Amino acid sequence: MTSCSASNITVQVDRKTILNDVSLTVAPREWITIVGPNGAGKSTLLSVLAGLRTSDGQVCLDGREVSSMSPRERALLAAYVPQHPAVPAGMSVQNYVLIGRTPHLSVLGVEGRDDYEVVDRVMHQLDLSHLAHRTLDSLSGGELQRCHLARAIAQQTSVVFFDEPTTALDLGHQQQVLELINGLQESQELTVVMTMHDLSLASQYSDRVFLLGEGKIAAHGRPQDVLDSERLSSLYGARIAVLEVDGHIVVIPGKE
Question: Against a cut of 0.85, is the pTM above it?
Answer without folding.
Answer: yes
